[in-house]
Every structure is written in structure tokens, then in C-alpha cells.
Design a protein that fits this description.
Number of strands: 35
Helix content: under 10%
Largest sheet: 8 strands, antiparallel
Low-confidence stretches: 1-41, 66-95
Strand content: 25-35%
Structural class: mainly beta
Shape: globular
Radius of gyration: 25 Å
Distance between the termini: 51 Å
């Protein structure tokens, strides 16, 4: 049997915490136990995370079938202390009770996360496919675990851990929010990068401007395979995907109810958490709540993920559905600035840090991999660019493999160069004809709010057009996005610089050298807010590199070169205005040996 991760349970005079299920019965046999470890944060990566489907299925079956005690479940407890009821009982954790079975066609982005411990036991969490190779889940499902070495992800099936069916992938990299706090269950968000992208529909994230999705009383739907009864240490994971609709509650109500229940007025953190439900009933026949094994799953409103199953309250009588208590979810819109760079990272070396391409006047191409604070030793670039005068990095297919937009010298024709997980070489698809006079070609990210990277181009008259992406490296018919850009002599940007989860662009005033931020709005009809000056003196740079998150801290950065060859790092802060970058840091000299940097 397989056990769901119950990583976070909270004690209160009758409380529960949503978490990965640790030991849950599946069908008729086996169970596996999981306790969330609390270890380092940040990113874990490995280049050798590719396993065969047979090996991955074996890993899943080993985790699910190691234990043979379906009536014994271990629920990991939160490290957070809380007031105890008179009988000394109470904890916190997650699952769906009172839900209904639903086909995978209703939630094609829903995936199962399976972790095999060294002792053969296993851990189970839910997750959401937010890009073909990215899974959004709870931080407590990742904390202290090495998913690259021991994890597997299963998608495309509503059946719990089937022997066949669906698609499986190893995990190539994991990212845990650097501010994750297991004691407070704060910043409970993580991303797993798949070694093999899934060809299933993805779910967009709620953004900072999607405030209406969080209105109290709004009906939201949560999905998961968590246990379906509230008996302590139940192993009854749902054999089929469940869904449950529940109302969102006001922050004030969440803070008051959960704070009182746990004896800690700060247990619920407005802005980072949301809560939902009508309150536990103590009776599984009438209760509607998440429970163990639902951890990491999505809370959905209007086709967007607004929350991640995080924690709830349990006691010695019930693991879930404790009378009067609500379910708590990580508030997704609060983490766009952290999460979107991880979804849209476009580093060549695939280590969560943006890299640099350089070309000499003689046409030699090199790659410099970021070390986090500098650039490493150069080596041969993965693609030859000597026949092109423009090269832009971007993962246009969002599969974890770097693509390039390249404009040919002479003809001005523009090509998308891409590769797939199954092929080491690049193929070229023409996406534009006769773009010789185009002043700028950028791929800053998703400008239209559909979760797919877009292309931005300025013509010789200073008109700017958006070519919305199709998600396969190709683009739709251009839409006029702005005019009057002739006043700028340099435009660049890759990613979100303001922390709101939307892609932004910078432009340099040709006369004054002032740098302006054109913050993204996520709307194709009006993609940018009014320009805001964020710096002066940028006419002192003759090349700017906007390849994304150079430092690996989930914020987009810039590199800029002076005519003398000095290279500076501008570390992003995710703050708008003049504080948008930390003070620049010189990281190299001699970079004037290159005719192009990107």
C-alpha cells in the first residue's frame, strides 16, 4: 500500500493540518509511511535524473506496495506547537472528505507525486501541471526530500497509482521557496521540474491582480486522492480522483477561527494563506474537507489555481473534519514573483540559473554558465549563431529545453531553433520574413496572460507588436501593442522584474540614457503600464543581457557591459521603482572581445 504525506498537522483544542500522506491503504494491500523532513531550501538538480518508464513504474510500485499493514498509518506532525485540549490531544493535516469522483478529463493538469524512501516506504502528494515540465505543489511535500534521486511523477490518469496508464516522469530538479517555514507552515510552495515533459493541459496561476478570485463566498474546487474518512491514521486513499467545491472565507474569519482553535492568533497568515469550507462537522457523512494525501493539490476558481492544499486541524478523535475548523491553502497569487521565474526559467545548462551566449567578431560562439554570483568558464555554445545578427534565448515550448529566436543576416528572415528531450540537435522553423528593419526582437515571457511565452517586435516606425505564442514555438498573427517607441534606442527584458508574476520590459531613452520600466499587465490589448523611470546613465552601456534569473533566487536579473569591456550584474529585487535592482556588482572585464552578448 501507499501512504500519503501528512507532513503538516497542527494541534489545537481540536485541530488538523494538511500535509502529504504517509501511510494510506490502496485497494487491498500495502501502505507506506511518510514523515516530512526539514532540511535545506532552494534548488536541487541532477543531470542524470532520466530513468526508463519501467524503472519509474518499479519505483512507484515499490513505494506503494512495500508495507502490508493497511490499517496502520503514520501521520507526520507539524513542528508547530499549539494549545492542547483538555484531553491533551490535537494535531493538523489534509484530505478530501465529502467529495465526488471525477474523470481526469475534468482536471488534466492534476498529477500524483510519489517518493520512495531509503527504507522502501513511500510518500504521496498531489500536484498541478503549470507548464509541460513544471509541477506546482506544497513546500512541505518537498522540504528535506531529494525528489531528483527518489521521486516520480504520474500524470494523465484519475486512478490512484495504476500499474499501467498515464505518463510517468522522473524529477530533474526541485525548488523550495527560500522562505519556507515548516514550523509556521509559511511560504508553503515548491516546484518540481520534470525530466520528461507531459503533453497534458496546464493550469494557469492566479496573479496579483486576480483579486476577484479571492472574494469571500466564492465557490472554489479542490482536487486530490487523499483519504476519504476522518478516522485517526486512516489509510483509505481515494482510488479515483476526487473533487470538492467549497466556499472561500474572509481572512478575518480564518484568522479568528484558526487562531482560536490552535491557541495561536498568528497561526493563519493573511496574504500568504487563504482558508475555505463551511467548517468541519465531526461526521464524515456530512463533512466536506481536505485531508491526508491531498497536500500539494490545487484549489481552482475560473480555470486558475488560486491555492495549494497546505494545512488543516486534527485531534486524537479525527484526522480531519474536526467540528468548526476550516482548510488552509497557500495563496498562489502572493507567490507569482517567486514561482513564475521557476516556470519560465530558460537557462541553457538547466540548473535554474540563466546563462549567457557570446559571439566573437569572427563568428565563434561560446556559452558561459552562471554560478549564481558570476559566470563560469566559457565553453562551446550549443548552437552556432554566426549566420545570424540577432539571437534571443527563450523556452518557447516550456519543456525545459532552451529555444532560440534568430534573425538571419541578409534576408532578415527569423527562425525558431528548438530541440526536444529525444533529440540533441536543433531544428529550425521560420517564424518571420524580411525583418531586416525591425529595431528590436524580444521574448520577455507571457505578455497576454495565457501562460505561454510571447514575442515582441518593434518596427522601423516605432510601432510595437505582440506575437502571442501558441505554446509550440510558433506564434499567432501580430497585434499592435504600442506606438512611439522611436524615442528608445534599446529595449530588453526576460521575466518578471516587479514580483507580480507578469513579464516586464525595459527601454532606454535615446537622448538621456534614462532607463524606463514598462511593467506588464497581462493584457494583449494594453500589455504595458505607463513607463516609469527606474535609473539614469544607462547610455554608459553598449550591451545588455536579459536572459532571466542569473543568480537563481527566483528573481529576474540583468547583465550590462561598458564599452571598455567591464561586465556588471544588476540583481533583481522584485520591487518596482528605483529599487528594482540591487547596487550593481562588477563581475568581469575584457568582455569587449565579443561582438554580441545574449
Amino acid at each position: 500500500m501507499f501512504s500519503a504525506h501528512k507532513g503538516h498537522k497542527r494541534r489545537f483544542p481540536g485541530g488538523r493540518l494538511a500535509a502529504p500522506l504517509v501511510a494510506v491503504a490502496v485497494a487491498a494491500a500495502g501502505a507506506f509511511l511518510i514523515a516530512p523532513a526539514h532540511a535545506g531550501q532552494g534548488s536541487t538538480t541532477a543531470a542524470n535524473s532520466q530513468l526508463t518508464n519501467a524503472q519509474l513504474r518499479t519505483r512507484i510500485n515499490s513505494a506503494a506496495g512495500h508495507l502490508t499493514t493497511p490499517n496502520t498509518v503514520g501521520a507526520a506532525k507539524s513542528t508547530r506547537s499549539a494549545a492542547k485540549p483538555a484531553d491533551g490531544s490535537a494535531t493538523v493535516k489534509p484530505r478530501i472528505i465529502g467529495g465526488s469522483s471525477t474523470p481526469i478529463s475534468s482536471a488534466p493538469w492534476m498529477v500524483q507525486l510519489i517518493y520512495l524512501n531509503s527504507d522502501g516506504s513511500g510518500i504521496f502528494c498531489g500536484g498541478t501541471l503549470v507548464a509541460p515540465n513544471k509541477v506546482l505543489t506544497a513546500g512541505h511535500c518537498v522540504d528535506g526530500l531529494n525528489w531528483v534521486q527518489n521521486g516520480a511523477v504520474l500524470g494523465g490518469t484519475a486512478t490512484l497509482l495504476p500499474d499501467t496508464g498515464g505518463q510517468v516522469s522522473a524529477v530533474r530538479a526541485q525548488w523550495l521557496h527560500p522562505g519556507y517555514d515548516g514550523t509556521a507552515v509559511n511560504n508553503d510552495v515548491a516546484i518540481l521540474t520534470l525530466a520528461t515533459p507531459f503533453n497534458y493541459k496546464t493550469l494557469p496561476l492566479a496573479s496579483a491582480t486576480d483579486t476577484s478570485l479571492y472574494t469571500a463566498g466564492t465557490q472554489a474546487t479542490v482536487y486530490g486522492w487523499g483519504v476519504t474518512d476522518s478516522a485517526p491514521d486512516s489509510q483509505n486513499l481515494a482510488e479515483n480522483l476526487q473533487k470538492l467545491t467549497l466556499p472561500e472565507n474572509a481572512d478575518s474569519e480564518c484568522k479568528s477561527e484558526l487562531g482560536g482553535a490552535l491557541g495561536d492568533e498568528n497561526a493563519f497568515i493573511p496574504g500568504h494563506m487563504i482558508c475555505g469550507g463551511t467548517g468541519g462537522t465531526g461526521d464524515d457523512a456530512t463533512g466536506k474537507t481536505t485531508c491526508s494525501g491531498d497536500s500539494g493539490g490545487p484549489l481552482v476558481v475560473s480555470g486558475k489555481i488560486i491555492g495549494i492544499v497546505s494545512w488543516g486541524v486534527s485531534d486524537d478523535i479525527q484526522d480531519c473534519n474536526v467540528p468548526g475548523t476550516y482548510d488552509v491553502f497557500t495563496k498562489v497569487s502572493a507567490y507569482g514573483g517567486n514561482v513564475q521565474p521557476r516556470i519560465n526559467d530558460s537557462d541553457i545548462s538547466r540548473d535554474f540559473r540563466a546563462d549567457v551566449l557570446a559571439e566573437t567578431p569572427a563568428g565563434q560562439s561560446f556559452e558561459y554558465d552562471s554560478t549564481g554570483s558570476n559566470l563560469g568558464t566559457r565553453h562551446g555554445a550549443p548552437i552556432s549563431s554566426s549566420n545570424y545578427d540577432t539571437v534571443v534565448q527563450a523556452d518557447l515550448e516550456r519543456d525545459g529545453y532552451q529555444d532560440y529566436i534568430m534573425r538571419a543576416k541578409g534576408s532578415g528572415n527569423v527562425f525558431m531553433a528548438h530541440r526536444t528531450p529525444a533529440r540533441a540537435s536543433y531544428s529550425y522553423i521560420q517564424v518571420g520574413v524580411g525583418w531586416n528593419t525591425r529595431k528590436a526582437i524580444l521574448v520577455p515571457g507571457d505578455l497576454t496572460g495565457d501562460g505561454i511565452p510571447d514575442l515582441l517586435s518593434e518596427d522601423s516606425a516605432g510601432k510595437v507588436y505582440i506575437y502571442s505564442g501558441k505554446g509550440n514555438g510558433l506564434f499567432n498573427t501580430p497585434v499592435l501593442a504600442g506606438t512611439g517607441w522611436l524615442k528608445y534606442n534599446l529595449e530588453f527584458g526576460h521575466g518578471d522584474y516587479t514580483g507580480d508574476g507578469k513579464a516586464d520590459v525595459f527601454a532606454r531613452d535615446a537622448k538621456t540614457g534614462a532607463l524606463y520600466l514598462l511593467a506588464g499587465t497581462g493584457s494583449i490589448s494594453a500589455p504595458f503600464a505607463a513607463p516609469v523611470q527606474v535609473a539614469t546613465g544607462w547610455n554608459g552601456f553598449n550591451a545588455v543581457i536579459a536572459s532571466g534569473d542569473v543568480t537563481g533566487d527566483a528573481r529576474s536579473d540583468l547583465l550590462a557591459r561598458t564599452p571598455s569591456g567591464a561586465l556588471f550584474l544588476f540583481k533583481g529585487t522584485s520591487q518596482a521603482g528605483t529599487a528594482i535592482f540591487s547596487p550593481w556588482v562588477k563581475i568581469g572585464t575584457g568582455w569587449n572581445m565579443y561582438s554580441r552578448l545574449s
